[in-house]
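re the bet — no i am not wrong, look at it urself. input seq straight from the record:
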Amino acid sequence: MKLLVDFGNGNTQDPAIASAILETGIAASIERAMMEEDGGWVLLSVEDGEEERFSAALAKRGVASRIQTNSVVYNADECVDCGLCTSLCMKHVFSFDKDWNLVVDADRCVLCGRCAEFCPQRALTVQK
């Protein structure tokens, strides 16, 4: 399961993620991070079923987080199954089924936004 951790309050120097890992014993992998001196966000992958406990450990340190679901929103009515997204996505979020219809595995998304940026039909949006 993925957690989107928000460092919008400027506490980017605090080792909140490392502290939450040590406190809970829950392994967390960084999928993607965007940090600047005044804030940012980190997309973490944590064990399924442990996201609430990990999120609570972050909250104790003043860091907000939420479970990341529906990272990629796919509008099938707009899509023409051109396949551009399949070639752009390095995380293999997109594929085709046996009938050449686009299949989206949003759990693999790391919020880079390239698919939405380059989709010629604007059939994809990325939600943070």
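see?? Residues 72-126 form a domain with the Alpha-Beta Plaits fold (CATH 3.30.70.20). told u. also The two ends are 15 Å apart (CA to CA). so pay up
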